[in-house]
Structures are given as C-alpha cells and as structure tokens.
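Issue: ligand-bound run for glycinamide ribonucleotide - logging full I/O for the record.

Environment: standard queue, default settings, no custom constraints.

Inputs:
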Amino acid sequence: MKKIAILGSGYGSNFEAISRYLKDVDITCISDNKDAYILERAKYLEIPSLVLSLDEMEKYFDENKFDLVVLAGFMRIIPESLLKKMGRCINIHPSLLPSFKGKYAIKQAFLAGVKVTGITIHEVTLELDSGRIIAQYPVMIDDSMHYDELEEAIHRVEHIIYPQVVEKLLNNEPINFSRDNCSGCQGNCGGCQG
Ligand code: GAR
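Outputs:
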C-alpha cells in the first residue's frame, strides 16, 4: 500500500478532500500547530495525526519514509535538511504561479484585476512557491465577481484537482487536465462550462 504524509497548519480542507478521495492509501496527518482544525478533521476521518515542530519533523522523516509528502496549507518554509529527509514533496498554491507568490495569493490576484487566476500544484524546493509546476487549473474572474465568490471558486477547484494529482503521482500516471476532470467547478474554471 502506498504511504503519504499530509502536512497542514490550519483549516485542512484540502487534507479532507484528498483523504476522502484516495482509496487504499495509508495517510498520516502532520501539523506544526496543535490548535489547527486539520487535526479535528483527522480525528473524525479516523486518520492518524501527529503534532511536530520542524525540529521534531527532522527526526520523524529520518525514521519514517513516504511515497509522497503533500503540503496542504503548511505555512512554514522547509529547511534543506528536512526536505532531503522527506523525499518527494509537493504543494498547492492558490494562484497561477509564477504570478502571486507568497501569502494572500487569491487577494493579490483579485486586487491586481486579472481576468484569469487559478491554482498550481508544484514540487517543493527551497525557494518559496518556485518548484517545477506539476499541474495548473484556471479560474476565470468576471467583472461582477465578488471576492468571496473568487475564494470559493478557488477552493472548489483545489478540492477537485489536488486529490486527482496526488492519486496520479502515486500511480505514476500522466497528468493532463481537460474538461472531463473538473465536474463540479460550476463554470468558474477556464476549461469547462460546469
Ligand atoms: C489553500 O488555499 C492553499 O492553496 C493555500 O492555503 C490554503 C490551505 O487551505 N496555500 C498557500 O497559500 C501556500 N503558499 P486548507 O488548510 O483548507 O487546505
């Protein structure tokens, strides 16, 4: 059975989407924040969870190996020594990288007035939000769109796309999103009409 670790510092909605989607994958939830809601989700999904500081993670990932480490709202920069121990590590970012790196990416895109933003799943490297792009999916911003609607659309697409990407990486399958992959975006992506 494939083994993954999902790391998050906060709300954990991507963790929940991935955990509900994957079948026959051994999942461990890890947080650096003991008060994070992701830990509540792990509890009700009956997924083992751990709270570890970055230092403790060094030891943990030295002793425990995973097919993939999945960052989902993990708000720490991962030091080189830890990244080496983790092995392959991917992240999701709520913009079309390389645009709008860093914090508040959805807001940055909205305030910039772009007509297309989206999500990116990428390899984690030492440089923030800069590793090789694995998958992207667009979200259109029309003139009447409110900020809250954009946020909702971004998260909806994240929850559809990230689980599929994780599954495809674990199965060594090619990643090529088309309209077939995104039922449920309700027309806010650029690839289909909902
Ligand atoms: C997601 O929108 C993710 O793209 C973003 O944090 C949110 C976590 O939500 N990540 C980044 O901004 C990384 N730079 P979640 O905890 O509900 O999954």
